[in-house]
Amino acid sequence: MITRAKLLFDLIGPRTLARFEDRCRHPMREQEKLLRALLHENAGTAYGRHHDFASIESVSAYQKQVPLTEYEDIEPYVEAARRGQPAQLTRARPVFYAMTSGTTGPAKYIPVTEASRHAKAGLMRLWLSAALRDHPSVLDGAVLQPASPEVEGHAPDGTPCGSEAGHAYRNMPKVMRGMYPVPYDVCEIPDYAARYYTLLRVALMHSVRVIGTPNPSTILLLSRELAAHIERLLRDVRDGTLDASLNIPAAIRASLVHTLRPDRARAGALQRAAAAGGGSLLPRHVWPDMAFLACWKGGTVAPYIDQLAPYFGPDLPLRDLGWLASECRGSVPLSDDGDAGVLAVGTNVYEFFPTTEDRKPRPTELLTVDQLDVGGRYLVYVTTAGGLCRYAMHDILEVTGFHLKTPTVRFVQKEKGIVSFTGEKLTEAQVLAAADDVLDQRRTDRSFIAAIGRPPSAGVEASYLFLVEYDTPPGDLVGRRAAHALDQALGRHNIEYASKRKSGRLGPAVLRVLEAGQFDAYQRRALQSGARDGQFKILRLVTDRAFADQFPRVVADYEGG
């Protein structure tokens, strides 16, 4: 059967790929053309007038006149736009604000315009074109894509703010919606357990060919939920119901239940799938025709990849989604191999600074896409259709090669002092703020040393371990309360940490009580090894689990759940 989606991709896919190939032959031509267009479009904005966009005619002039920016630098313009003042960062009014964690706690509001939404959609269409070229059977089945609610609030002028993934899901082209059987309403279920159950309940009625979500921890979570609710799911499929005990708003439940029909044949097939899984429903038995998984494969989420095989089999292809964030979508993988993608040179303007330079860059010394070396690692700055100019992403990218003349890059990690396993982007500042909230470091009988991000291992979610010295160790009750308070404080200072904790993708923070004196001993060892006394310092947020071995005298661990 030839579907509308298949006809569309047969028509658009080859053309989309050919156009991208042409851009990759002339990356600097594309970058310069895009920069001129963005500057011309936004020359009359408050930000454009301040930096005299109208006079800029070259990349070198752009680097001389426009500073490198952090969110805090553009926040006044964003807030003015959110209050309804026109033409702040972009001539076009933002249609949405993507909420993501800020570096000091409060949420960042990333403006999304029609142009920037169209730019991201174009790259998603490109990614799909390459994926469908390699896996055409996807068009014969369904795509399962978890997403968060689109709207979590509104700006003072009424513009919606929330999850960009939810925004994209809700606003996908009509021709694509037939491939996504789970209605957007499911994304609006506030209770995570109920949302995941409902997502699976609907998906079980379809031949899922792809599960797609940036973080593989979400795919693992869905797989475990599938195994945990066998009897309920089988009953609901057989009877055409949606478990009455689920905490689902009445309006959403009503919109879903009229679409469900009893299906004894499917229930029987699922019963046989459970038998094949040794009594457990495994995705590879439930959806045996699955073509591939779409998720990130590298960086700090890589430990999750090794845990997928028991659920999906060792041979199911995995295709990386590329380097993407709320601020921009920056690369497009064109095959299943590795975790690198081709820089989208026609969509955003990129500048780079080598990580080998242990200092802040000067605005005029950033490198362009034609100045990168294979194997080099760089901090990346972006200029986008959404109004970001020379914006510090705090991401480290590695150049893995070239596609024609355009660099291919892979995400390595967040910049120093930022850790992210599930998209939480926890910062040193947020960790220190949480410790200050809970530990009252004005007191002399306790001292916070560092938090250690612990990656996921078999059956155990990623979590954060806080090392704290006490002159007099607390009792168990006080220790448990402090651990719980640390977990809650991290959620207050980082909205995405709170979201990932609530959804079960992050484990609870752990307070490790240490005997006193160990930090002083650690510092002495460092000085003896050549560290300079006046410059001695440690990161307060690390991912090196061996760091904890420097403090071996442990009194107790208290979990914050």
Strand arrangement in the largest pleated sheet: 9-10-14-13-12-11
| Structural class designation | alpha/beta
Looking at the structure, what is the overall shape? globular
Largest sheet: 6 strands, antiparallel
Low-confidence region ranges: none
Separation of termini?
A: 50 Å
Strand content: 15-25%
Mean pLDDT: 91
Helix content: 25-40%
The total of beta strands comes to: 21
Number of helical segments with 4 or more residues: 20
Structural domain tally:
3
Radius of gyration: 25 Å
Task: Give the secondary structure arrangement, pairings included.
Blueprint: H1 4-25, H2 27-41, H3 46-50, H4 59-65, H5 71-82, E1 96-101, E2 107-112, H6 114-134, E3 142-144, E4 153-154, E5 160-162, H7 164-170, H8 174-177, H9 192-203, E6 208-212, H10 216-228, H11 230-239, H12 250-257, H13 264-276, H14 283-286, E7 292-294, H15 302-305, H16 309-312, E8 318-319, E9 331-332, E10 341-343, E11 349-354, E12 377-383, E13 391-403, E14 406-414, E15 418-419, E16 426-427, H17 428-439, E17 446-454, E18 463-470, H18 476-493, H19 495-503, E19 510-515, H20 518-528, E20 541-542, E21 554-559
Parallel strand pairs: 1-5, 3-6, 6-7, 7-8, 17-20, 18-19
Antiparallel strand pairs: 1-2, 4-5, 9-10, 10-14, 11-12, 12-13, 13-14, 15-16, 17-18, 19-21
